[in-house]
Amino acid sequence: MKTLYSQLPAIDSLLRDPAMQPLLLQSGTAFTTRQLRAMQQEARTHIQQHQTLPGWHLNWPEEAQRRAQQQQQSALRPVFNLTGTVLHTNLGRAQLSARAIEAVTACLRQPVTLEYALDDASRGHRDRAVSALLCELTGAEAACIVNNNAAAVLLMLAALAPGREVIVSRGELVEIGGAFRIPDVMRQAGCQLVEVGTTNRTHLKDYRAGISDNSGLLMKVHTSNYQIQGFTHAVAEAELVALAAQHQLPVITDLGSGSLIDMTAFHLPAEPMPQQLIAAGVDLVSFSGDKLLGGPQAGIIVGKQALIDRLQQHPLKRALRVDKMTLAALEATLQLYRQPETLREALPTLRLLTRSPHEILQQAERLMPALEHAYGADFSLNIAACSSQIGSGSLPVERLPSFAITFSPRESHGSSLDALAQRWRALSQPVIGRIQEGRLWLDLRCLEDEAALIRTLTT
Ligand SMILES: *Cc1c(COP(=O)(O)O)cnc(C)c1O
């Protein structure tokens, strides 16, 4: 044992070792020394527990280099999203357009007129550029941008109905993954929830009966991540607006995803559009920046000027406001919507959602030979039809026909699929698929760089 400990190299001599010089140059003395100390400690523990030296003992410089590289990798690793879910919340939702990426980098390199009006050098408003675009695209009078749609809902409620009752249909008391639940947000905003109607049917008379002297507003929530089917009834926004007007109450809608374009024109399932609700007279409509819109994480509120002014003046707005990167990305994304003809090419979300099954099948056929060659000995590979999802609670029931390459183990060891999935997660650019029915599926809908995938999976 003693002799094993004495074989551990001294930190000083390692630091002088010529093989250590590249790491020292790249990472500095302090970092490298910390790294070597940690390795030394680990080696001692290894000797204590196993009475042997660790495997990497033969080459300390190489091991130190390998560990340094691993540590310097970003925790936000780029991955191949072959899960089949286009707007995958855990993988960062929308991929931004080239225009948005350029806009963000430009605003980071130089000072920008974030809150500065060039005509008279006065203080401008940070939401103004994006507001003008949003008004143009949705027909609204004004807009307000916050950190995400959850923040948008919180701000609308806190600013418009503090201490008052908010009337919502029982069928619309949504929970959006994790901590966002309409009743909880109400409480946080200081509002009192008044549930009307039933889970499957809510009528105008239910809203009417729910209105009292303490009502603050009427709220509609788009049931974005579930669908109630069968014997159902919900009140259309226009009807609700007419009722609310009789009582001088505003109507607000949390649209969740929302889409500024008619999705059916792209052969995609219909999704409500903010401009339709504005036209129906809804006072405020909120939706996400990084769902179907295809932009950065943000909460977008459009609607009546007087109400937007109240949101802008509320102290919460300061806490929930977005930074220049978000505004730059959002502005560039919205500008793309001015040219619907080129939107499908320019906006990655729409480009991926609208890929035809035929095109994806052809891609699978192109990839097969190289993957067969690399994995064919241990796995049986097949091209199989599958269904992609839009994701992020958008259009939960609808599926998009797609194709996957599937891997099933030649000998049916249950664990080898998990081992393969794990190996792919450890790659320089991890490849994320899904395991289902005893196969590992790589849904190719979101694969744009074929050559990079082949390189990653076969070298
Ligand atoms: C997604 C969603 C939210 C939350 O939006 P984030 O941008 O993720 O904060 C709120 N309400 C509805 C109906 C949603 O679909």
TrEMBL record:
Location(s), subcellular: Cytoplasm
Domain L-seryl-tRNA selenium transferase N-terminal: 5-44
Keyword Lyase: no
Keyword Isomerase: no
Reactions performed catalytically: L-seryl-tRNA(Sec) + selenophosphate + H(+) = L-selenocysteinyl-tRNA(Sec) + phosphate
Entry EC no(s): 2.9.1.1
Pfam families the UniProt entry points to: Se-cys_synth_N, SelA
Keyword tags: Cytoplasm, Protein biosynthesis, Pyridoxal phosphate, Selenium, Transferase
Subcellular location, principal: cytoplasm
SUPFAM superfamilies found in the cross-reference section: PLP-dependent transferases
Single GO MF annotation: L-seryl-tRNA(Sec) selenium transferase activity
Cofactor(s) demanded: pyridoxal 5'-phosphate
Chain positions found as N6-(pyridoxal phosphate)lysine: K291
UniProt pathway: Aminoacyl-tRNA biosynthesis; selenocysteinyl-tRNA(Sec) biosynthesis; selenocysteinyl-tRNA(Sec) from L-seryl-tRNA(Sec) (bacterial route): step 1/1
Subunit structure: Homodecamer; pentamer of dimers. Binds only one seryl-tRNA(Sec) per dimer.
Functional note: Converts seryl-tRNA(Sec) to selenocysteinyl-tRNA(Sec) required for selenoprotein biosynthesis.
Family note: Belongs to the SelA family.
NCBIfam families recorded: selA (TIGR00474)
Protein name: L-seryl-tRNA(Sec) selenium transferase
Naturally occurring in which organism (per UniProt): Pantoea rwandensis
